[in-house]
Amino acid sequence: MLPQQASGSEAELRELEILRVLKTYYDVQKLRVATELRVKQTRFSQCQNRHLVPMAVARDRCPICDAPVTEVVVEPPEVLKAVLKDLESIEKNLYRDVESRVRSHQLYMHYLQYIDGVGPLISAYLITVLNPSKFETVSRLWKYCGLHVEDGRAPRRVAGQPTSWNPVARTMVWKLGESFRMRGGFYRMMYQQFFEESLKKHPSWTKAHHLAHARRVAVKLFLSHWHTVGRVLQGLPTRKAYPCEKHPHFCIPPVLDTEDPAVVQGFYDTVLRPLGWWSEKEYYDWVTALKIYRQKQKQS
Description:
3 strands, 3-stranded antiparallel beta sheet, 11 helices, mainly alpha
C-alpha cells in the first residue's frame, strides 16, 4: 500500500519551508566560510612600498613590486571571532532544522533514507527543487541538471549566453556523484562498474575523463530511479525512461542500501511490482549483487 498523500497545497507549503531553510543554510555557510578565512588569516608580508599581502607560505620578495619584505602578524578583531562563533552556531541549528523537516517527508522516509551517499541537505534539494512531480519525464530532469547532450557533448556554459539548464542543479548533482563515489553503496557499485566499462570502451581517455564519465552515468541512473520512485510514491503517472524502453534487458532497477529483508521486500511490493517493469527475480539478482559487492569491500 502506498503511503497516504498530503494534499497538494499542504505538501507544497512544507516543501517551500524546507527550501527556505535550505537556502538560508547555504547563505549562512557562505558567510561563515568568508569570516573564517578572515579570522584565520594572520600572516602578511609588508614591503617598503606599504604593500600588505596575505601569506600562505614564507616569501622574501613582494609579489606586487618585488621589493624585500618583512613578515607581519595581525591578530583578527575580537568582534570577528565572536561573529564566527555565532555563525557556526546558526549554521548547525539550520542544519538540524533541515534534517528534522526532511526526515518527516514521505520521499525521505520511504526512499532517500535508504540511499547511501544522500544526506539531509541533498535530500532537501531533491525534494524541493528536483521533485519528480515537477518533471513529466526523466529526460527533462536530466536536462534541468545539465546532464543532457548538445551536439554530441555535455553542455558547457558560454560567457554572455544564457543556459538551457540550471547551473546550481548541475553543481548539486556533481556533489551527489562525489558523495556516491566516496560513501555510496549501490550507486558506488554502479559507479565502479561504469568506470571499468569506460576503461575498456575508451582506452584513449585520461583517468580524469573516465572518472567524470562514471560519475555522470551513475548520477543519471540515480536520477532515473529518483524520478520513477518519487512519482510512484506521490501517486503520479510514470513512464519508462527511453533507455529502458529501448534496451529492457539492461534496465537497472532501484535498489535500497539496507539489509533489512522487510524493507527490501516492502519496497518491491509497494513501488516496483505495480509498475511491472522488473520481475521479483530480476530485482533480487541486483540485491544479491550488492550484497556480494559489500562483502568484497569489507574484505579488501
